[in-house]
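agent: user wants the structure for Mismatch-specific DNA-glycosylase from Laceyella putida. delegating to structure tool.
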Amino acid sequence: MPSIPDHLAPNLDVLFVGFNPSLKSGETGHHYANPHNRFWKILHQSGLTPRLYRAEEDGELLKLGYGFTNIVARPTQSAAEITKEEYRAGRRELKQKIETVRPRVVCFVGKGVYTEYSGRRNVAWGLQETPVVPGVQEFVAPSSSGLVRMKLDEIVAIYAGLARLIKPTN
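agent: tool returned. relaying tokens verbatim.
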């Protein structure tokens, strides 16, 4: 199954980074396409998007300053199928993408994604103190997968912190 295209542009407000595409995303060519994934609902309810978007509209979010990529490009049924070699290569490629496009914030969609990228453990939700790429803020948010046991309201509250970070009220 082919990987899905990244949506990248220079100077994004937020670059969202997932583990890897689901099989449904691989089939459709769009990020967060699994119907059980709550990503689009979370973005809207947290105030990051003005309306509820669909996975098929993922490229449209570039107009809002949001991009998408994954630490591993290969679609799988679960992140448990990702190999150590894929993570090793993905870490290097992801760092290079971040250094190239220089987003204001990189939002890691899941603590596991961030720990694989940064090599750090015991990570808290939200803004991280010391970024891997200097000058690019790193924000860790819960995975939007339907398998995550956190309540939706708790997840939305963490993403609302990201919305406040990039859209501060005057």
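agent: one observation worth passing along. The chain has a mean pLDDT of 93.
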